[in-house]
TrEMBL record:
EC number assigned by the record: 6.1.1.16
Protein name: Cysteine--tRNA ligase
Similarity section: Belongs to the class-I aminoacyl-tRNA synthetase family.
Name of the gene this protein is made from: cysS
Motif placement: 'KMSKS' region: 266-270
InterPro entries referenced in this protein's UniProt entry, alphabetically: Cys-tRNA-ligase (IPR015803), Cys-tRNA-synt_Ia_DALR (IPR015273), Cys-tRNA/MSH_ligase (IPR024909), CysS_C (IPR056411), Rossmann-like_a/b/a_fold (IPR014729), tRNA-synt_1_cat_dom (IPR032678), tRNAsynth_Ia_anticodon-bd (IPR009080)
Necessary cofactors: Zn(2+)
């Protein structure tokens, strides 16, 4: 059947059918760079990075665009508070974005356009909407006329009447209708501005994404993604202005990730109930943070607690331990046997079957609307299968390599790299070697003494038929 996506526009799962065979035009809303991004933002960035990775894993060529909103009311306000220019603030926080995103193993987009780089194109786009009867100018600002687009409300499944009921009518509001929205904002004193046919000003928020899509992906795209909080008004307004401009369907599929709560409560800066991703990454394992952010289906809410992150670390350590065990056994097997029989390097029929079934279960889960929770469950089922095989014995060197490569592969699809090899200090390496010699001499008192000494330093030893394994105490 192939990949199924839940389309927020239609409210149902649909098979992925791209505009161009084998290619995906994918746009995800990026950050407004007035500060570091918080953990809720991190979930969105990780989720759509993972979906991009999975599409590529399934053989698609993905052109992935993620914007930076680098001029905005919040940027202007914070820049004034800090006594710097909005451009300086934006540039600084874009640099911080790449630092923090890199720690979460989020790959850079194919293109990262910025609003301030696209102002000329935005002005032309707005003028086209005016010329086609979809927008009007008032006192140097330009507004989209929602009454000119009969399908307005189709993404959020609201009628214009319902929307109007939720708007507070401002005294001397210059818009023709409360649901109309700004495409261009007339400049206020002290703000950065650009010249336009309507006077000095700057772009509205919604228009930027329509224009960046148009510039870097074309009039029509396959997937548009963002947080659920962006459905209305941001994505609703994008549809209206884009389709009014082109006369074509803007995006085939709309994907929206669920909210992230902190200790059971909605994230809120006003109450202090929020976590900056940067702060969390300074004290917790980034691999485990990413693992946690993918531990629920992307459309479902996710609740952060320290205990939940502890559980993510423990779960990930099970996979790490197996990969290390497979590497260790492969090295020990080669050392024990010397020149290996070529047949031993070939995976067994059972090993090939195990890998095929584990990979198939993972793909089946991920094909069903990118269900990372079930994809992880398939990986852990595989961990149990392989551990059973190791206990039963009869595993060839080829099997060990095949199993190991499979888990590295599947973690890689989720954007979680293999844990870097841990290096022991020379003194600890010497103690492990000394203990091995003591055991050969049957000096078990000295061997136990060294084991206890290492344990006090957080090093746990495990004696196996394939030699002594070590790990840091969890």
């Amino acid at each position: 059947m192939g990949i199924l996506l839940y389309n927020s526009l239609t409210g149902k799962k649909e098979p992925l059918q791209t505009l161009e065979p084998g290619k995906v035009r994918f746009y995800a809303c990026g950050p407004t760079v007035y500060h570091f991004f918080h953990l809720g933002n991190a979930r969105m960035f990780v989720v759509f990075d993972t979906i991009r990775r999975y599409l590529e894993y399934r053989g698609y060529e993905v052109r992935f665009v993620q914007n930076f909103t680098d001029i905005d009311d919040r940027i202007i306000q914070r820049a004034q508070e800090l006594g710097i220019s909005p451009r300086e603030l934006a540039e600084e926080n874009i640099r911080y974005y790449f630092e923090d995103a890199g720690k979460l193993f989020i790959r850079p987009a194919t293109v990262h356009p910025r609003v301030t780089e696209c102002v000329d194109e935005i002005i032309r786009f707005i003028q086209d909407l005016i010329d086609r009867g979809h927008a009007y100018e008032r006192n140097g600002s330009v507004y989209f006329d929602t009454s000119s687009f009969p399908e307005y409300g189709k993404l959020s499944h609201q009628s214009p009447e319902d929307m109007r009921a939720g708007y507070r009518i401002e005294v001397q509001d210059e818009k023709d209708d409360p649901t109309d929205f700004a495409l261009w904002k007339a400049a206020k004193p002290g703000e950065e501005w650009w010249p336009s046919p309507w006077g000095p000003g700057r772009p509205g928020w919604h228009i930027e994404c329509s224009v960046m899509n148009y510039l870097y992906l074309g009039e029509q795209i396959d997937i548009h993604a963002g947080g659920r909080d962006l459905i209305f008004p941001h994505h609703e307004n994008e549809i209206a202005q884009s389709e009014a401009h082109s006369g074509k369907t803007f995006a085939r599929y709309w994907l929206h990730n669920g909210t992230l709560n902190i200790n059971g409560e909605k994230m809120s800066k006003s109450t202090g109930n929020f976590i900056m991703a940067r702060d969390l990454l300074e004290r917790r394992d980034p691999r485990a943070v990413r693992f946690f952010l993918l531990s629920a289906h992307y459309r479902n809410p996710l609740n952060y607690t320290e205990e939940a992150l502890d559980q993510a670390e423990q779960a990930l350590s099970r996979i790490d331990r197996l990969i290390r065990d497979l590497d260790h056994r492969a090295e020990a097997l080669k050392a024990m046997r010397g020149a290996l029989d070529r047949a031993d390097e070939v995976p067994s029929t059972r090993g090939r079957s195990d890998v095929e079934q584990i990979r198939s279960a993972f793909i089946q889960a991920m094909d069903d609307d990118f269900n990372t929770a079930d994809g992880m469950a398939a990986i852990f089922d595989g961990v149990r299968v392989v551990n059973t095989r190791l206990e039963e014995g009869g595993v060839t060197l080829g099997d060990l390599r095949l199993y190991r490569d499979l888990f590295v592969e599947l973690l890689g699809v989720l954007g979680i790299p293999k844990k870097e090899e841990e290096r022991l200090e020379d003194e600890i390496e010497r103690l492990i070697a000394e203990r091995a010699e003591a055991r050969k001499r049957r000096d078990f008192a000295r061997a136990d003494e060294i084991r206890d000494q290492l344990r006090h330093r957080g090093i746990v030893l495990e004696d196996t038929p394939y030699g002594t394994r070590w790990s840091y105490e969890s």
